[in-house]
Amino acid sequence: MLKGKTALVTGSTSGIGLGIALSLARQGANIVLNGFGDAEGPKSEVAAAGAAQGIRVGYHGADMSKPAEIEAMMAHVAAEFGACDILVNNAGIQHVAPVENFPVERWDAIIAINLTSAFHTTRLALPAMKARGWGRILNIASVHGLVASAEKSAYVAAKHGIVGFTKAVALEAATSGVTVNAICPGWVLTPLVQKQVDARAAAAGISNEDAKKQLLAEKQPSLQFTTPEQLGELSVFLCSDAAANVRGQAWSLDGGWTAQ
Length: 260
Ligand code: NAD
Hints:
Pfam families: adh_short (PF00106). Belongs to the short-chain dehydrogenases/reductases (SDR) family. This is 3-hydroxybutyrate dehydrogenase. By secondary structure, this protein is α/β, with parallel strands linked by helices. It has 2 domains: 6-186 and 226-251, NAD(P)-binding Rossmann-like Domain (Rossmann fold), CATH 3.40.50.720; 187-225, no CATH class. The protein contains 8 helices and 7 strands; from the N terminus they run E-H-E-H-E-H-E-H-E-H-E-H-H-H-E. The chain has a 7-stranded parallel beta sheet, with helices on both faces. Helix 4 links the parallel strand 4 and strand 5. Helix 1 runs parallel beside helix 2, helix 1 (15-26) crosses helix 8 (228-239) and helix 4 packs parallel to helix 5. The radius of gyration is 18 Å and the shape is globular. The model has no long low-confidence stretch (mean pLDDT 98). Bound molecules: nicotinamide-adenine-dinucleotide. The site of nicotinamide-adenine-dinucleotide (NAD) has 29 residues, from helix 1, helix 4 and helix 6.
């Protein structure tokens, strides 16, 4: 379905980004990965997922908090792959602390990586998408783009921001073949959430399994984690022709979290 298209997925060496990259690769899209840590493992996994479709897989290690590196990454994608047809703004970090103790440097990093990076990738990718008459921008927001939790002020501010940004750009592109949407996952058991599980287990003196159950019971009525595979398949749908008129939406995949 996506053969001949190129997808850039930021923060895709792990977790949700990698899950989305794998699903898009299975549909035949060339994939450019980004993120920290080992890139070779994720690159081989994605190449294997798209092997039957003959996809190409690339990687750029831009730090998403640095505009100059983002510009270099976007130029690299255009030069190596011809265009960025699908942009998945996924890179994100978390820090949990009451606002009065929130480290200023963590606030700045969360706003830069979880929000401002999407402004830079979008402004750089959109003109070519519009010129080619087709494009998909998927912003991986969160339930925290719709509702709040205590001690996550920077994350909640950034995620509400990216939902607003999604709507504004969707309107600007509304008469073009470029759609812009946000996806709002509830708890997904990735390294980002495992840190919060570990902190809870340590603070309450409980097992890792009990900490996971508590985390889910507090917010996610299904009592099941959302998976990177489910988010990957939702991304495939939003890239399909059937979703051509889905514009400016914040689509939850949260086990009922925001239905409460
Ligand atoms: P993760 O920690 O598994 O992956 C984060 C990815 O971002 C990694 O590849 C990491 O290397 C990359 N990254 C971090 N800082 C970066 C930077 N400065 N530059 C480039 N890459 C950077 O986390 P995840 O849970 O997969 O989160 C992915 C996205 O999904 C984030 O935006 C997060 O806010 C969002 N999200 C996660 C959950 C959840 O429950 N895990 C829920 C809702 C939304």
